[in-house]
Amino acid sequence: MSITRFGSSRHDAGCNRRATLLLAALCLGIVALGGCADPDRSTRGEVSGTVLLNGAPVTTGEIQFVPVGPTSGPTSGGPIVDGKYHIGYKLGPGVGEYRVQFQGMRPSDRIVMIRGTEHQELVDVFPSKYGPTSPEKRTIKPGKNELDFDLKSE
Questions:
Q1: In this predicted model, what pLDDT tens digit does every residue of 68-83 receive, in sequence order?
Q2: How far lies 114's CA from each of 106, 111, 117, in Å?
């Protein structure tokens, strides 16, 4: 009669090695997922909302958040499409005060000659007052910010 001790056969040694590797991989996965928490969520805002001009959705354009006062950091912005915009927190503005600028071009009904070639004239979507000296100011908070704009022509 032979006695086999638990864990002494080659089969058991292979199982133990696999279990150890599986446990190590699981631990590494947990550590990696813990490292995915983004510290920017507490210092940046996710911004979305609507942009109307004279009560109608702006078809196309751009929105920019420019830091003012004690707020520091880069300008943040994104496209306006069918009256809506969204800037995720990774590219969103930092927490603080911002001047909000709008820009965009749209085709007019006029045809203009440029160097002997006809082109459809492009005109500004937004009145100039919403450019670099825009009166629109907003405060960005950590997390989601729903900011709607109902702009008026001059």
A1: 999 888 999 999 999 9
A2: 17, 10, 5
CB atoms near residue 15 (< 10 Å):
12
Q: How far apart are CA 149 and CA 73, in angstroms?
A: 23
Gyration radius from the chain CA atoms:
28
Rounded Cα distance, 53 and 149, in Å: 8
pTM of the predicted protein model: 0.70
State the Cα–Cα distance between residues 58 and 145, nearest whole angstrom.
20
